[in-house]
Write a structure and sequence with these properties.
Largest sheet: 3 strands, antiparallel
Low-confidence stretches: none
Shape: rod-shaped
Strand content: over 45%
Helix content: under 10%
Structural class: mainly beta
Distance between the termini: 57 Å
Length: 71
């Protein structure tokens, strides 16, 4: 059985607003971000996940967000 695979595992994106724009909103700072894990697996393997033993549960896709406001 061919268990070769290519996996896109993690993407992290973050952004901080400029001080000038934040001041227009009446705050000192604002930043936010998004982190996504277990995004995509490219494989010809017919099972759930080529990295896990047979019978295991698949790895979940997770989304985490962050918002930081400085007053």
């Amino acid at each position: 059985t061919d268990v070769s695979f290519l996996r896109l595992n993690t993407i992290a994106i973050a952004y901080s607003l400029s001080e000038g724009f934040a001041r227009k909103l009446g705050i000192k700072g604002l930043s936010f971000g998004l982190n996504i894990q277990n995004i995509y697996t490219l494989t010809k393997y017919e099972g759930i996940d080529p990295q896990l033993p047979f019978g295991s549960f698949p790895q979940p896709r997770t989304f985490n967000g962050r918002l930081a406001i400085t007053l």
